[in-house]
Amino acid sequence: MRITEVDHRHEVARRRVIAFCDGVAEMHGHGILSDHLRLELEDATTDPPPILVLGLDDHDGVRGFAQASMANDTSVVELVIPGTHEAPPDRDLAEGLLRAVVERVHDGGASELTWWLRSHDHWYETLAETLGFVERRNLLQLRARLDSRDRDRLAAMRVSTRAFRIGVDEAEWLRVNNTAFASHGEQGSWDLETLHRRLNSDWFDPQGFLLHHDEDQLAAFCWTKVHRPTGHDGALGEIYVIAVDPSRAGRGLGAAVTAAGLVHLFDSGFPDVMLFVDETNTAARAMYAGLGFVEHHRDRAMGLAL
Predict the structure, then answer these.
(1) Which residue, of 58, 155, 159, 206, has the fewest CB within 10 Å?
(2) 247 and 151 in one domain?
(3) Residue 257's pLDDT band (boundaries 50, 70, 90)?
(4) Distance separating alpha carbons of residues 179 and 194, to the nearest angstrom
């Protein structure tokens, strides 16, 4: 097995990686790369470019892939290697890909490398420990199934919203988002390019990006997303990002804009809904529990100091 880095700016190489990831996703029945890494992979103009490392067999066939992308002074890495219960992923290949990424990230000056172990990545737990990764965070996926009674209850809770307007709302949205998530390394450092990468994605729907204004200023928002059926799940609506301007905290706006997002998803034909929340965010977890969400599974952020 040969480990090699490919240039993200090279169109043919990038398309080859995307095709490999899509093939593994179809085999596994669920998405492989996180939204953040997938969007950076698809965009040839991503700056700084992500680190792309391939594992090739003797015939130059792709057998594994690792991607690392920058987030503030850290990097985030994810692995894509085919595997089933009967034929788990190649551990030696996984280790080779990770070691190559660690070396590159270290040379790039990052202070830490974060490896997200998804709930379906249990194969890699001992490898993470062997390489010195330690648990940093737990991210919970919560789910709820809505019916018409839930819809009526949520409708009574929601505040007025309007759809996001591309070319008009970016600056104000970035201000609220980055202020609300100032202590969040990945969500709190968005710039216009980061936002537009999502606005230009094939899943974006401005009608599901709901803004609530107070005295002509953006006070809170709820950005929703929909997921088409996969091998593991039926169609799902997602509360993608929700935030309240910290100057308007304590008014119940978080629950109110989330309610607006849930009503939108239900009315759009998505009664099954999900969201992600950090395990330590007890206030948000209590709010979501009050809206009917329960834990479905959890992902772990494993950190390696460099």
Answers:
(1) 58
(2) yes
(3) very high
(4) 16
